[in-house]
Amino acid sequence: MAEDRLVCRECHRVVEPNVETCPSCGSSSLTEDWAGYVYIAHPEESQIAEEMEVTEPGAYALKVR
């Protein structure tokens, strides 16, 4: 479930709960305090990905605290 996952505070990538660092940016600043969930399949064609500055496909949180 998405609710059990952590989110990177730097790139907003959703990661599994047992991960110590973000596989996308390498940051160790992960949090459980996030809201909203979007999966970006084709970032090169997505206006949302452009707005969020996402370049890799994957799951991202919309709001990270």
Kindly report the average pLDDT value: 93
Give the N-to-C terminal Cα separation.
19 Å
Question: What is the topology, as strand order, of the major beta sheet?
Answer: 2-1-3
What is the string of SSEs from the N terminus onward? EEEEHE
- Outline the low-pLDDT stretches: none
Which overall shape is indicated by the principal axes computed on the Cα atoms?
A: globular
Features of this protein?
single chain; 65 residues; mainly beta; three-stranded antiparallel β-sheet; two-stranded antiparallel ribbon; 9% helix; globular
How would you describe this protein?
With 65 residues, this protein is mainly beta. Helices cover 9% and strands 32% of the residues. It contains one helix and five strands. The strands form two sheets. Strands 2-1-3 form a three-stranded antiparallel β-sheet, with no helix packed on it. The protein has a two-stranded antiparallel ribbon with strand order 4-5. The longest helix is centred in the last third of the chain and has 6 residues, at 47-52.
Summed up, what is this model?
The chain is mostly beta strands. The chain has one helix spanning 47-52, and strands at 6-8, 14-15, 30-31, 34-40, 58-64.
